[in-house]
Write a structure and sequence with these properties.
CATH class of the largest domain: Alpha Beta
CATH architecture of the largest domain: 3-Layer(aba) Sandwich
Number of strands: 20
Structural class: alpha+beta
Shape: globular
Distance between the termini: 50 Å
Number of domains: 3
Number of helices: 7
Strand content: 35-45%
Strand order of the largest sheet: 12-13-14-15-17-16
Order of helices and strands: EEEEEEEEEEHEHEEEHEHEEHEHHEE
CATH topology of the largest domain: Aminopeptidase
Radius of gyration: 22 Å
Length: about 325
């Protein structure tokens, strides 16, 4: 049976759904985030109809909906987070929540019930991380190009195969990477333009079969090859995090690389200068505690932001 595996990182928690040696899905949480399924007692600050604004115990504001008619401003109520905060180009979206009741209890998330490991099997997290970083994944005959916009995540299909063959060849890869990138919300797929209704129907049927286990609603392919998918949005996908917080993603990966190297000596992290300011003292202290090694930071402006390196060097 597939099993959620959890890796407790520095500054983040990582989750992979694994079936034997195959990774089926991934999730990522950063420390301090309110995540879907989290419950809290919050003060209702403002109410307009069934919507309003509540105050989280941390002092942060949360959008709330489906409020009962008798809910009163100034009173406190139990809420459950339904969507984490989202950073988009030019704006910040507050987290969302709904009142908790017998029919809306906190969900059992992978992070609550998954099996915690010291480290994932070699390469499994790296493969997903690098694919999300590049925004491109290859399949036999072509590639998928992912782009995050404020309106939706777009998937463009590129390749040299004839249009119908290319479209059908892309479907299994689309089905695979939607959960691996933890994608939700509005997702647009730009297939090659198919001239006949029969060809478009073939792709629709292939998508229906491939996405049978991915909860969603979907439009039929239009005459220009476009398909829209709507899936539950619980927070930023891996693609969203790279689009809005690439330095943050790279900084946490640098710490992971420092934790993964083994041997006596000093951990030397070589990073792009943009990362150095993001390496919080408490994160470096935690890295030293976990590895029982001193950590030294060097910067190299010639490094790509994602290309931080970690190695063991001798004590000075």
């Amino acid at each position: 049976m597939p099993e959620w595996l959890i890796e407790e990182g520095i500054g983040e928690r990582r989750a992979l759904l694994v079936d034997k040696d195959e990774v089926l899905a991934a999730k990522l949480r950063w420390d301090g985030e309110m995540a879907a399924g989290d419950a809290f007692e919050g003060k209702l600050l403002r109410k307009t109809g069934t919507r309003g604004l509540a105050l989280h115990p941390t002092g942060r504001e949360v959008l709330v909906d489906k409020l009962p008619r008798d809910a009163s401003e100034g009173a406190s109520y139990p809420f459950t987070i339904t969507r984490a905060a989202m950073t988009e180009r030019g704006r910040f979206k507050l987290p969302s929540a709904r009142p908790s009741d017998a029919a809306n209890q906190p969900v059992d998330t992978p992070f609550a019930s998954g099996k915690t490991l010291r480290h994932f099997p070699s390469g499994e997290w790296e493969d997903v991380w690098h694919a999300a970083s590049s925004g491109e994944v290859a399949f036999d005959g072509g590639s998928l190009l992912f782009a995050v916009t404020p309106a939706m995540t777009l998937i463009d299909i590129d390749g040299a195969l004839p249009p119908r063959e290319l479209a059908l060849a892309a479907v299994p890869s689309i089905a695979r990477w939607l959960p691996l990138f933890d994608l939700g919300g509005s997702i647009g797929i730009d297939f090659p333009t198919l001239q006949t209704k029969a060809d478009r129907k073939s792709v629709d049927e292939a998508l229906e079969e491939a996405l049978a286990d991915f909860p969603h609603e979907r439009t039929a392919m239009n005459g220009f090859g476009f398909v829209q998918i709507i899936a539950r949005l619980e927070g930023p996908s891996l693609l969203h995090r790279f689009a809005t917080s690439r330095v943050g993603m790279a900084t946490r990966m640098a710490l992971r690389r420092g934790e993964m190297v083994e041997g006596p000596g000093v951990t030397l992290l070589t990073v792009h200068p943009a990362l150095k300011a993001k390496l919080k003292p408490e994160w470096l202290a935690e890295l030293e505690r976990r590895t029982a090694r001193q950590v030294r930071i060097e910067t190299d402006p010639g490094l790509a932001i994602e290309a931080a390196t970690a190695q063991i060097v001798a004590h000075d």
